[in-house]
Amino acid sequence: MERAISMKLTPIQRRRINAVRMYLGIMSSSEICNTEGDSLVCGIEDNTHNKEYYYTHLQKPKQNKPNTRSWNLWKKVIQPFTTNNKKLKRHLGKWTLKHSNAGTWKSYRSKDNNQVYNLKKDGNNDKYWERYTRHGTELRLIEDKIKLEGFTPEEGIPTQIRTFSNGICYGEMTATIMPDTETENIYRPGPMVSWELVDVHFYTTNDGRPDLYEILAYHDKHGHLLCVSDGSVIFHDMSFGWTLATPDGKIIVGSKGPCNGRGNLLRAEAAGMLSATMFLSILCKYLQVPVFNVVCISDNACLPSTDLVSL
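Below the sequence we write its predicted structure tokens.
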């Protein structure tokens, strides 16, 4: 409301904006932002957001659903401190120890970053916790139906997990939530997609660790390598994947994971190509390779495909 008060609005307009705030049941800006603190919750500007991302503990006043005019004023208030894609112009700070005094977030990670608790509802609308362990960016369920008192939110840090159509869960545990000494540096390539280097999980079909020198040897043998990337989207949940292979079909390395932002197939597919490019850039810099030839293959006409790209 401080933002609305500072704007040149009439008393009636301010009451309309406050009606939206009371209807949403929010008291602070963090309650309408994602857990990373760098953008608004998708759909919060027009009430199409996921209502289970945050449960308030406070007793909300009875407020009827605001009309379209009120929601338009609400958008006007939040517009000055966000970009066109709802990113915050100024990111929120670190989580305080009182992050759950007014409500409960849907997901929390343990402070050692190894476990994630996700709040669920059963058929009777009763809430319970699920407990996951982290394997790279993938989360594996190890305990179900934990009573609410079995986990104290203050012992964790709010985070976000995504579930894709194959049932695999992925976690977004980033340094913007609570920086650690090991994850202090964040790589943010631009508005298309953002992630940390530690959250890009590369793999091979054998031991799970890519051998950069082996990749370079295959490249020198064939003169180029093939990079096939793809992406998928279900509502706002997006995933990507890519593989790097020799011309005769031997898969050398690959990656898979989630990407951020409003659900868009092009964004998901571009994230796959971006992840592959980022990996190859790391390889070239680490091995000091002046030229690395790759044929990129994608089924999206907006992305470069079947072209020989030299890095």
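The chain has a mean pLDDT of 77.
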